[in-house]
Amino acid sequence: MADVVINSFSKKFGSNIVIDRLNLQINNGEFITLLGPSGCGKTTLLRMIAGLESIDGGELFIGGKYYNNLPAQKRHLAMVFQSYALFPHMSVRNNILFGLKIKNVNKAKMQYKLTWVLNLLYLKGLEDRLPREISGGQRQRVALARALVLDPDVLLLDEPLSNLDAALRETAIEELKRIHHQVGKTIIYVTHNQVEALTMSERIALINKGKVEQYDRPKAMYDDPKTLFVAEFIGSPPMNFLEGEIQIQEGFGGVNTSIGFLKLDKDRAAKLEAMSGRKVIAGIRPQNIYFSEHVIRRRHTDTSLDLIVEFVENMGDRSLVIGRTRNSIVMRFMVTRDENITSDQKMPVFIDGRCIHLFDTMSRLNIFNNDGSI
Amino acid sequence: MQGKNMPMATGKKIIWLTGVFLALLIVLGPVYMLVKYSVSDLSSINTGGEPIPLWPYHPTLRMYEFLFTDSQFYRVFMNSVIVSLFTVLLSLLLGVPAAYILGRYQIPGRKLLLLAIISVRMFPDIASVIPIVEFFIKLGLHQTYTGVVLAHTLLALPYVIFIGIGAFESIPHELEQQAWVMGAGKFQTFFKILFPLAIPGLAAAAIYTFLLSWDEFIFSYFLMFGRQEIFTLTLYLNGIKYAEPQNLLAAISVCLSVPVIVFSMMVQRYMVAGISTGSVK
């Protein structure tokens, strides 16, 4: 069993607090992602787990064992660095076997492990090459192979795909998922790339300023952001944000913003009555604003709006339209590629009331989901 | 590397080749002169007003034959080889650990230590030789191989340490940390990862040290004076500098260069450029 429990982790660099009383629990065999902007502390957190950074405060348990004072050499974890850190003077074989040789594993077992991992990662035939003689994708796989042969309790991956080009990254994502499925290891994966996080992991911990903003399944992170930061970070293109005030108008609960009164769906609107007058920020994903001409079915909690098209960004399978309301508020929304849209065109759109996220202006927490838990 | 395989225009090529040829001439000219004199017969040197020929009239290896049958020259030559090799060995033995610590760890007082190390070379040899020799005499190290090797090590160490620091510093920290995470202790990490990767830099330091010891005169002179049997080549040369004939001196000079060239060629194999490419990214 290799479940990871992090209790109130703290880390300071000088007077700079990098990790701030952070809590996290990872189940045995789970694949989780530490996601966040650069400088949020996610790599430091990973290095604290690995034993490469001291733990200034808090506790680390892996498989129920107290890990705080265990040196990196004895933690029985494996780590893949962003740079891969392959030993340049050693062949692929010796890179992969390095850890096993250190642990004095017998020859037969080493050979067995080597064959197993070379097959698992399609590295056969490269055993005698030096790192400089193989491609970037192959190096990344060697780094992973080197970690996997050690049969670690927990596998730590620090942005291992960031040096790959887009096409290779797609393949690598699928491969990582396959490997996790096959070996069933606990994996902690660090990235700033939300696509990697959303596609690969079972749970995502979104980290901001040394704290966990939300720790949830990828779908929940997207559909139900608990803080304004999560709403800003997850999803591409980014949400539209509008400041407003909760009001009840003509029996509808909603939020009064600079582009007008936006109705919320019935279930949530019912809870709004008690909050009338509260200052909030409304977040609407570009994917949740629809071109009226193409969607016939309407709910009475949809809000209609006319936009003037500023310009259109082609994104391949879809297009992002940047439009303005009559009072010059910029709104972004998505249309399918075959729309024939030109600048200055007037477009009637509607906003789905079920997909408006409301955050308190002061606390920046989701007003429907602010129990404080993460 | 773009353009590496592009054909060059003929005119450009001629200019480049002329430049290369001139550079070679300047560098190899003295070498040619040396070799020529060393195989010259006397009539090709004392031409009595005639211009000295480009190649001797009657080339001869007589001077080399003479040198290698001269027991004094042979002993002096071997003394130099021994002193230089031991200086290299001792300098690396002391310098590499120092360079490793100073290059990889932020120890307190690091800057002060570096300054102290380099300060050894801030005084001209001629100023520091008297107190050091005085000190060596007190220790009973004068007129011994040990004394000369120690003195040469003293001179070479700052260079070995500084070149070594550069070599160790340039190794990415992640390689070291990767080894730790994989279970390697500090010693294993040093011997399996850091030291092999520092070898190109250390090889350069070794060549430099060999040359320094091979060429060293002032300390050798003060420390060995009065005991001929441990003389090194520089002292021997000092004793015969006005000797005739020139072809003998030239032959000695050629003999002086050969060990340095041999040592450099042996060590140069380890000076592989870009040894750490492919490790990170």
Main traits of this protein?
heterodimer, A: 374 residues, alpha+beta, Rossmann fold, OB fold (Dihydrolipoamide Acetyltransferase, E2P), six-stranded mixed beta sheet, five-stranded antiparallel beta sheet, 34% strand, elongated, B: MetI-like fold, 2 domains, 11 helices, globular
Account of the 3D structure:
The complex is a heterodimer of chains A (374) and B (281). With 374 residues, chain A is an alpha+beta fold. Chain A has 2 domains: 4-233, Rossmann fold, CATH 3.40.50.300; 240-360, OB fold (Dihydrolipoamide Acetyltransferase, E2P). Chain A has 9 helices and 20 strands. In chain A, the strands form 4 sheets. Chain A has a 6-stranded mixed sheet with strand order 6-7-8-3-9-10, with helices on both faces. A 5-stranded antiparallel sheet of chain A has the order 13-12-11-14-20. In chain A, β16 and β17 form a beta hairpin. The radius of gyration of chain A is 25 Å and the shape is elongated. Chain B is mainly alpha-helical and 281 residues long. Chain B folds into 2 domains: 10-38; 70-268, Orthogonal Bundle (MetI-like fold). Chain B has helices at 10-38, 62-69, 71-104, 110-119, 125-139, 145-169, 173-181, 186-215, 218-224, 233-239, 246-268. In chain B, α3 (71-104) runs parallel beside α6 (145-169), α5 (125-139) runs parallel beside α9 (218-224) and α7 (173-181) runs antiparallel to α8 (186-215). The radius of gyration of chain B is 24 Å and the shape is globular. Chain B starts with 9 loop residues before the first helix and ends in a 13-residue tail after the last helix. The mean pLDDT of chain B is 85. The A-B interface holds A 50-52, 71-75, 77-79, 81, 83-89, 98-99, 102-103, 130-134, 136, 139, 146, 150, 163 and B 172, 174-175, 177-185, 188, 192-193, 196-197, 274-281.
